[in-house]
Amino acid sequence: MNTQFLAQAREIYSHALPQLFQRPNVIACGLGYKIRGDTQTDELSLIVSVERKVPAAQLTAADLIPKTVDGFLTDVVETGHIRAFMPPSAPQARHRPALPGISLGHYRITAGTLGLVVQRGAESFILSNNHVLAHCNAAQIGDSIWQPAPVDGGTSADRIATLAEFQPLDFGEQAGECQVADLIARFLNTLAGATGSSHRMRAVQQTAGSNLMDAALACPDAPDLITPEILGLGLPTGVADPHLGQQVQKVGRTTGHTQGVVQQIDVTVQVDYDGRTAHFTDQIIASRMSSPGDSGSAILDLERRAVGLLFAGSEQVTIFTPLQRVLDHFGVEVVK
Fold it and tell me: What's the structural domain count of the chain?
């Protein structure tokens, strides 16, 4: 692909994002190849994802996605409801040593997937998602990680690691740090209680509300409790960057070994975390290759080079973060 054309497309895309997200039903935007009929073309386009398509006659002129933006083609695709992959119940096995592709999770969640074994110096870690290992920011460093995860029959006897580090998820607000606001909230809550109201207020602080990853590390209780070999695939061979049209694969707790194709890059997307929405930028959309419980899976190319960390999706797509960004953030390397 012409790098100058791609750079131009990225500039147009970044300027168009705020206006596109003001339209109803838009949940993601990225760069990908336009689809005409059932055929994917080689025309780079601004892909606008909606939960479901509706007839143009039911939309106002202001709600319609324009055919072009600054001369750059657009395409509207239906992806369904995008959510973090928090799974239903399903039985999964206990493995010792534990290996990437199997069930594990924080002791208070349902289940997720062990993504990769990574290292910092001589110390090894388990890499997965924040919502798998850190319970969507609710966990404490040192909390127990079970394999298998609780929904798969895991108990305290199945502890394999403890939470070591996590990148907090930003949902647009956090507990307020302003003492004045806190005092006002307490005063109003006292008045509410005196009048018999059961409603209460709390001071919150608005945050940027933007995320680059859903990721966390766990430290195994003993080095021999984990192995870097991915279930059914073997050792990863390295790390690579994802790109449009790339064939990818993963092994996950729910759907096992599946393959897909990278459909969009530079994606901005809203992800539902069981009722709370997190805004993510610079993500990757691939074709559907996962289901709830596969969160935390490593995305690899067909040469087994790790390219991403899976964290969300829908009935039509899978969403992952470029892996090198996660590795750089934690200062770790993939064990291969």
Answer: 3
